[in-house]
Design brief:
Blueprint: H1 21-43, H2 89-92, H3 94-101, H4 104-114, H5 144-164, H6 178-195, H7 198-205, H8 215-228, H9 231-253
Helix pairs in contact: 1-4, 3-5, 5-6, 6-9, 7-8
Protein name: Succinate dehydrogenase
Organism: Nocardioides thalensis
Keywords: Membrane, Transmembrane, Transmembrane helix
Length: 263
């Protein structure tokens, strides 16, 4: 549909480039991740490589921390929700998922690809009116800044899991495998994505009248601002790394492969 202030032309756009390629790619890749993550979250199995006696104790990021009725050795912080009848991943995934789904960049990505609002710059959208994020349910997107604080906690937990990846099957230090490397890279990308967030930039430097009176916060703000320029890139890289680490641990846990060990 065409809004009342739009130029009166018959075509939905005068663009001659393949503008549809970007939203289509985003739709396919993001949709594939959603399907994969949903399946893995509801499986409730093959999320801990240490269930095999000859493999190191790698824990999938989809299940960290494992607080439900988890397999032996996977719960570093106990099982306060052992009464939970469904997959343990469903207890904690709401928080990292909430952070990503309310992320400013991801909003742009899935608004354009799934809702076509708009599908691309200078392309008419198929909606008769626009209310933005002023009404339910999209008004809930404003809780993003609160999800950020929880996201920092999960970044710490994934870093802790990566450190535990240096233990062998006997829980002794001195092991390093491909899983360890993947978990370290994933933790680093999660930190980059979290710290480059627009909310982080506002938290460290927002509501200041004079940067000169707050040199520490100003320095932090400049660092975060530099990271913020690559926020979209970190969003995708960290999304891929989470799925890759989970898949690697899944294949080890179900006996398909063994961990590639370096020492």
């Amino acid at each position: 549909m065409r809004g009342p202030t739009r130029a009166q032309i018959e075509e939905s756009t005068l663009r001659t480039d393949r503008w549809w390629l970007s939203p289509l790619t985003t739709f396919v890749v993001f949709g594939a991740f959603v399907v994969y993550a949903t399946i893995r979250a509801f499986m409730g199995s093959d999320y801990f490589a240490g269930v095999r006696e000859d493999q190191p104790p790698y824990l999938s990021p989809f299940y960290s921390p494992c607080l439900g009725d988890c397999v032996e050795g996977s719960s570093e912080f106990g099982q306060p929700f052992d009464w939970w009848p469904l997959s343990a991943a469903l207890i904690i995934l709401i928080f990292p998922l909430g952070f990503r789904m309310t992320c400013y960049y991801y909003r742009k990505a899935y608004y354009r690809t799934f809702w076509l609002s708009p599908p691309a710059c200078a392309v008419a959208e198929p909606h008769g009116k626009y209310t933005g994020e002023t009404r339910f349910p999209l008004i809930l997107q404003n809780v993003h800044r609160y999800f950020w604080y929880v996201a920092v906690l999960f970044a710490v937990l994934l870093t802790y899991d990566a450190i535990l990846g240096f233990r062998d099957e006997h829980h002794e230090w001195g092991h390093m495998g491909l899983g360890t490397v993947l978990m370290l890279v994933n933790a680093a990308l999660i930190w980059l994505y979290t710290l480059s967030c627009h909310s982080c930039r506002h938290i460290v430097g927002g509501r200041l009248r004079h940067f000169s009176k707050h040199p520490v916060r100003y320095r932090l703000w400049t660092w975060v601002s530099k990271l913020n320029g690559s926020h979209a890139r970190y969003a995708w890289y960290s999304l891929f790394s989470i799925a890759l680490v989970d898949l690697y641990i899944f294949l080890i846990a179900n006996g398909t492969i063994d961990d590639v060990r370096f020492f």
